[in-house]
Write a structure and sequence with these properties.
Distance between the termini: 37 Å
CATH class of the largest domain: Mainly Beta
Number of domains: 2
Strand order of the largest sheet: 1-2-5-4-3-6
CATH topology of the largest domain: Elongation Factor Tu (Ef-tu), domain 3
Radius of gyration: 17 Å
Order of helices and strands: EEEEEHEEEEEEHEH
Number of strands: 12
Largest sheet: 6 strands, antiparallel, barrel
Helix content: 10-25%
Number of helices: 3
Shape: globular
Length: about 200
């Protein structure tokens, strides 16, 4: 379980890809806090640490993960948003994030808005029903609030803190993002589905 509040931007030191999946080593100051088997959200994808030391950690991404997320497009030297699993005593400053990516979105537009930056992201059609105006959404592991909603896109307004402390400030038109919708919306849909159309 995560909150969508990024704790560090890590750098992919090594990346070994093959038919079996991908093995990554990520350099981060969070290394001393990571233990073997710990869950770490990497660009919003929950991965398990297979090794860790003061300089970072190692992890593996199976083919399924590489297929359904934007992690398949990362490269050695690239930066990723990192968050450690929350503890029961932590403040829930963002929203409930599982690290289970629902799909991949694409940046359609970037524009400046005073000290903020507006980001328009195209979303898969099957995810749009889980996105509401002023609701929560997770993009590349970052908990964000929907500022405006279209038929096939959501627009987010990024504050300077987000732009500086995450990789969101480096996004350009055409960039791909991991998308996780609010889990509460998915549970509600599942619970009411049997009663849909009944009086």
């Amino acid at each position: 379980m995560f909150t969508g509040l990024i704790q560090d931007v890590g750098t992919i030191e090594t990346l070994e890809s093959g038919a079996d999946g991908a093995r990554l080593r990520i350099a981060t100051s969070l290394g001393p806090e990571i233990g073997l088997g710990d869950s770490v959200a990497v660009n919003g994808v929950c991965l398990t640490a297979t090794a860790a030391d003061a300089g970072g950690f190692e992890t593996e991404a199976m083919n399924q993960t590489l297929t359904v997320t934007a992690l398949g497009g990362v490269e050695a030297g690239g930066e990723v948003n990192l968050e450690l699993a929350m503890q029961a005593s932590d403040r829930l400053g963002g929203h409930i994030v599982q690290g289970h990516v629902d799909g991949v979105g694409e940046v359609l537009g970037v524009s400046e808005d005073g000290f903020a930056r507006r980001l328009r992201v195209g979303l898969p059609a099957e995810l749009m029903r889980y996105v509401v105006d002023k609701g929560s959404i997770t993009l590349n592991g970052v908990s964000l609030t929907v500022a405006e909603l279209g038929e096939s896109w959501a627009e987010l307004s990024l504050i300077p803190e987000t732009l500086e402390r995450t990789t969101m400030g480096k996004l350009e038109v055409g960039s791909h993002l991991n998308v996780e919708c609010d889990i509460v919306a998915k549970y509600v849909e599942r619970l009411v589905a049997p009663f849909a159309g009944k009086e």
